[in-house]
Amino acid sequence: MRTKNLLWSLLIAAGIALAPAAGQADSRVSIGIAVGPPPPPVVVAPAPQPGYVWAPGYWAWNGYRHVWVEGYWLAARPGYVWVPDRWERRGPRWHHVNGHWNSRHAGREFHGGRRH
């Protein structure tokens, strides 16, 4: 009986001694995948409104997934064109470029989602 108790005591002591080492084992695996936004849904733009420019919808990233942001009307700015939100691939990653107003003389001109 004494030997049995000694054996159990040694096993418990060994388990306690090895527990911190087992807790420090690191078996993490990291996989990086560059996923761009999904294709845009088919949306019929509303009829043109005088004095306004249609900003088409786009995919936004909320930190977890892509979410669709509906298009909307913007008050026109004379001498400027609306450049819609878009995604650009830069190396292995995708970057969202915010929509913005651009001077008509800046080269890449958009108006209501159409190139001019």
Quick description:
The chain has 116 residues and is an alpha+beta fold. The protein has one helix at residues 2-23, and strands at 52-55, 58-61, 66-69, 72-75, 80-83, 86-90, 93-97, 100-103, 110-111, 114-115.
What does the model show?
The protein is an alpha+beta fold and 116 residues long. It has a domain at 52-115. Helix content is 19%, strand content 33%. The chain has 1 helix and 10 strands. The strands form 5 sheets. A two-stranded antiparallel sheet has the order 1-4. Strand 6 and strand 7 form a beta hairpin. It is rod-shaped.
What attributes does this structure have?
116 residues; alpha+beta; two-stranded antiparallel ribbon; two-stranded antiparallel sheet
Shape: rod-shaped
What's the average pLDDT?
A: 77
Considering DSSP H and I runs of 4 or more, what fraction of the residues is helical?
A: 10-25%
Count of discrete alpha- or pi-helical segments spanning 4 or more residues: 1
| Main sheet: strands, sense, barrel | 2 strands, antiparallel
Strand residues, percent:
25-35%
Distance between the termini: 94 Å
Q: Oligomerization state of this entry?
A: single chain
Order of helices and strands: HEEEEEEEEEE
Structural class: alpha+beta
Strand order of the largest sheet: 1-4
Radius of gyration from the alpha-carbon trace, in angstroms: 30 Å
Tell me the total number of β-strands.
10
Model regions low in confidence, pLDDT < 50 over at least 5 residues: none
